[in-house]
């Protein structure tokens, strides 16, 4: 089954599925600023668009563009700001 | 706005959005065989999983794996078979 998820009043939508390597989602973020919390560790890859990300324990944000990725440890929070509709792949470990 | 789309009784779900380059969707296909029809030309990229594709005017299928893409002309039909949950990016020109 494909799992449809909606966050932040529909401003972030994702589709969850399973691969041989584990669980993943592909999703789209509307422009805005969001705080996410991880359960397991995640690898986030920008498919199209761009994210400004503040990772756990950091104060400086960094820009993650198309094709680039960042890793978020388990059980932590991170902030994401997008200025254009941005699609992403999230791989859970 | 992010557009949620469901095809083939929920076996193919996608999320539509717009970039500077035009319209795109990210989506997930359940295992199965599907025939799609294009309006405008499309570039389909496999994000995770694998697709066996028969392009318009061809009889031989070809396997399109993770990170690979294929192009489909406007106003044409193509067949896709997937054996595992497969995520994709579709860029409309």
Automatic annotation (TrEMBL), chains A, B:
EC number(s) from the headed UniProt entry: 2.4.2.1, 2.4.2.2
The reaction(s) this protein catalyses: xanthosine + phosphate = alpha-D-ribose 1-phosphate + xanthine; cytidine + phosphate = cytosine + alpha-D-ribose 1-phosphate; a purine D-ribonucleoside + phosphate = a purine nucleobase + alpha-D-ribose 1-phosphate; guanosine + phosphate = alpha-D-ribose 1-phosphate + guanine
SUPFAM superfamilies: RmlC-like cupins
Top EC class, one word: transferase
Pfam family, one: Ppnp
Keywords: Glycosyltransferase, Transferase
Keyword match 4Fe-4S: no
Domain of life: Bacteria
InterPro entries: Ppnp, RmlC-like_jellyroll, RmlC_Cupin_sf
Annotated signal peptide: none
Stated family: Belongs to the nucleoside phosphorylase PpnP family.
Role noted for this protein: Catalyzes the phosphorolysis of diverse nucleosides, yielding D-ribose 1-phosphate and the respective free bases. Can use uridine, adenosine, guanosine, cytidine, thymidine, inosine and xanthosine as substrates. Also catalyzes the reverse reactions.
HAMAP family: Nucleos_phosphorylase_PpnP (MF_01537)
UniProt protein name: Pyrimidine/purine nucleoside phosphorylase
Species this chain originates from: Lacihabitans lacunae
